[in-house]
Write a structure and sequence with these properties.
Largest sheet of chain A: none
Radius of gyration of chain A: 23 Å
Number of helices of chain A: 13
CATH architecture of the largest domain in chain A: Orthogonal Bundle
Shape of chain A: globular
Number of strands of chain A: 0
Helix content of chain B: 40-55%
CATH superfamily of the largest domain in chain A: MetI-like
CATH architecture of the largest domain in chain B: 3-Layer(aba) Sandwich
Number of strands of chain B: 11
Largest sheet of chain B: 6 strands, mixed
CATH class of the largest domain in chain B: Alpha Beta
CATH class of the largest domain in chain A: Mainly Alpha
Helix content of chain A: 55-70%
Structural class of chain B: alpha/beta
Strand content of chain A: under 5%
Oligomer: heterodimer
Distance between the termini of chain B: 72 Å
Order of helices and strands of chain A: HHHHHHHHHHHHH
Number of domains of chain B: 2
Largest interface: A-B, 45 and 52 residues
Shape of chain B: globular
Structural class of chain A: mainly alpha
Distance between the termini of chain A: 17 Å
CATH superfamily of the largest domain in chain B: Periplasmic binding protein-like II
């Protein structure tokens, strides 16, 4: 493959696009280290006039965010919510996707169509009926309830992504495995899963980000009591009802970003390969 | 197999974690849903401290700025919080109409309440003869903020009539400055600061009765009184000589930032109309400013002398969804002057409870606001909060933005009237 073939024009366009994309995040980062009254008075770009004048920077916003009461507990809650919700989604989706890709059973295509159709159902529509069910079952305000909710919301996309990836694995591989006497379970654990690490990793990143960044689902099903509230819910209460102290959110955004960033970098070598999952056959 | 062992491990951890919150939540507790966060949340926790210490009841407050949606969802799903703190009576009455709120007149000492609160505050929390909400505190909206030091340095006088206010505006314009700073941007709620202007002007030009008719949609939006209020607002807001940055800045400046031009050196504007809550923005964005010295207010003057200087305001209301011994104890505590005094002294809000002494207010400025509120012959609640949401937090906001953006007033008023026709179920002007 000729990598050098790309013209300088393409490079320029890519660099420009990246810059435009990064600019708001850069602004956020700069704002997060500026004092509140500076943020209120002037735009973040004013620091560019004198970027090395360190007196205009402060870590006060970070200190206030990290020092706020209950932040540690909220961080732990977020992990408690996100990790099982991610693992469960991947686990269930992998089983389902494998069945959709390699098993023959009546109504398979119709079922798959239903799953794909669920992708377009806005989750807001489900809030009231599910919460009503939860309060009857005693699941409202519990971690089990929110795991189930996140798994349910994540599954359609997860199954769709993985089915296409499993479907693109060579059929010969499974045929010869079955001829050699492998059970479907063995074929799944020994063949499909190891070959699908890129797809599983990218799905893991997606799902982790969605659950970690979620505010609405947590607020509705868990409520805001300190023993269960995730980081997003806790951070949103730093701001007053009229939006006072919004400068704290700039720092809060980076605090909340730290864990997903770590997950992303840990899994990123799989990411590009995985995101092409199912897009190209062969 | 490794996968299986990991799975089993996870399940054990999960089980432990699931039981944890259940164990910690066994004693009496009360959950409250509201909009407060930041300083407000800290202040409310201070209010709760003595209560929790005395009763051992654990009060858990959840704040969200998306309160109407979250509360509606939880109520509809049969999973409401024990209590809710609402910033406007519109939704409170809606919940009461749905039969979701507990009748507090059975729980509270009504004779004491009638002694402590003026009738207007009790009416605000009443629905169908039942008391469904109590007023924790009030905010005053009819205030014009200014910088006394700059006024003194430039020889500007605090206006006491509308003509003087316009004369001052013109004088500042002749001096080569702009008098007003207005900011209507507020994310999805953009436009609401303009609705406060219109409401204040309506009260001063048409009087409280027409104002009530307008809020109830007994007169249409195309009524001359509404039209006149928009025009008076437009004289200032649409005039680039009178307002800092012209209409572009009015539309794009956040309401919380709009007060800042008063405190730059030199100031870029001199007057700012906003509710009492703006003091928290002033002090946060301009550290070191002193109430009464660096910033002060005067009541928005009378326009038509017949109607005097009415007060437009807002209130924080608290209603109860679940009648339990814990919620009874808490609501009884929250109406006491002691609890309300902590709340107002922390936030500079105003108490509606007559027994809260003026000493409770943190500074002279807040005492002056409380006095303005008490002395106003006429008090009216923020009209947009009372209208159906499709109008009060929809078409009205949008209409204000359209009008400031240069849209023809007839078009704007007909646009809001069309939305009102759809949204109101009663009202003489509803088609």
């Amino acid at each position: 493959m000729e990598r050098e073939g790309a013209s300088p024009l393409v490079h320029l366009v890519i660099i420009l696009t990246c810059l435009v994309w990064i600019l708001p995040t850069l602004g956020l980062l700069v704002s997060s280290v500026r004092p509140a009254h500076d943020v209120a008075a002037t735009g973040w770009w004013t620091v560019l006039r004198n970027p090395f004048d360190l007196t205009q920077y402060t870590l006060q916003n970070y200190r206030e965010v990290l020092g706020a009461a209950g932040m540690g507990r909220a961080f732990v809650n977020s992990l408690i919510i996100t990790i099982p919700a991610t693992l469960l989604t991947i686990g269930i989706a992998a089983f389902a996707a494998f069945a959709f890709a390699w098993f023959q059973f009546p109504g398979r295509d119709a079922l798959f169509l239903v799953v794909v159709g669920l992708l377009v159902v806005p989750l807001q529509m489900t809030l009231i009926p599910i919460l009503r069910l939860y309060s009857r079952l005693g699941l409202a305000g519990t971690f089990v309830g929110i795991w189930l909710a996140h798994v349910g919301y994540g599954l359609p996309f997860a199954i769709y992504l993985l089915r296409n990836f499993f479907g693109s694995l060579p059929a010969d591989l499974f045929e010869s495995a079955f001829i050699d006497g492998a059970s479907p379970l063995t074929a799944f654990f020994r063949l499909a899963l190891p070959l699908s690490v890129p797809a599983l990793a990218s799905l893991g990143i997606f799902q982790f980000l969605w659950v970690w960044n979620d505010l609405l689902v947590g607020l509705i099903y868990l409520g805001g009591s300190p023993s269960v509230a995730p980081l997003t819910v806790r951070l949103s209460t730093l701001v007053g009802s009229y939006g006072q102290s919004w400068h704290l959110l700039t720092a809060a955004a980076f605090v909340s970003m730290a864990v997903p960033m770590a997950v992303f970098f840990a899994l990123q070598r799989y990411f590009v390969r995985g995101i092409l999952a199912g897009a190209v056959k062969g | 197999m490794r996968i299986r062992r990991n799975l089993a491990g996870w399940m054990v951890i999960a089980l432990v974690l699931v039981t944890m919150p259940a164990l910690s939540a066994q004693s009496g507790k009360v959950t409250i849903l509201g909009t407060w966060g930041g300083h407000e949340l800290a202040a409310f926790e201070k209010v709760l401290e003595p209560f929790e210490a005395a009763t051992g009841i654990d009060v858990q407050f959840t704040g969200t700025r998306d309160l109407p949606a979250v509360l509606t969802t939880r109520v509809a799903a049969g999973n409401p919080p024990d209590m809710a703190a609402l910033p406007n009576p519109g939704q409170m009455l809606e919940l009461a109409a749905g039969g979701h709120l507990v009748d507090l007149s059975q729980i509270l000492d009504m004779d004491q309440l009638r002694e402590d609160f003026a009738p207007v505050w009790l009416e605000m929390g009443s629905y169908d003869g039942k008391l469904v909400a109590i007023v924790l505190s009030a905010d005053l909206k009819s205030l014009v903020w200014y910088n006394p030091k700059e006024f003194a340095a430039r020889g500007y006088q605090v206006p006491t009539t509308w003509d003087e206010l316009l004369a001052l505006t013109e004088q500042i314009a002749r001096d080569g400055h702009t008098a007003w700073s207005i900011g209507l941007e507020s994310g999805a709620a953009s436009g609401w600061p303009g609705t406060d202007w219109i409401e204040d002007i309506m009260l001063r030009t048409a009087g409280p009765e027409v104002y009530d008719q307008w809020v109830n949609h007994d007169i249409p939006w195309t009524h001359p009184a509404v039209r006149r209020a928009f025009e008076i607002f437009g004289e200032i807001a649409r005039n680039p000589r009178y307002v800092y940055g012209g209409t572009t800045a009015v539309l794009s400046t956040n309401f919380g930032d709009a007060v800042n031009p008063l405190f730059t050196d030199p100031p870029r504007a001199f007057l700012h109309r906003q509710a009492s809550f703006i003091t928290s923005f002033i002090t946060e964005n301009n550290p070191g400013v002193v109430a009464g010295e660096d910033y002060d207010f005067f009541p928005l003057p009378a326009i038509d002398p017949q109607w005097g200087v009415p007060a437009l305001g807002a209130a924080d209301l608290i209603g109860v969804f679940r009648d339990t011994p814990e919620t009874r104890a808490l609501i009884r505590y929250l109406v006491t002057p002691g609890a309300q005094a902590i709340w107002v002294s922390e936030l500079g809000k105003l108490s509606a409870n007559r027994r809260v002494t003026p000493n409770a207010y943190p500074d002279e400025l807040t005492r002056k606001m409380a006095q303005t509120l008490v002395e106003a012959e006429v008090f009216r609640f923020d009209g947009s909060d009372l209208m159906p949401p499709a109008v009060g937090s929809g078409a009205f906001w949008e209409g204000v933005l359209m009008y400031v953006g240069g849209e023809d007033l007839d078009t704007v008023l007909e646009f809001i009237e069309a939305a009102a026709d759809d949204a109101y179920t009663s009202g003489a002007a509803t088609d």
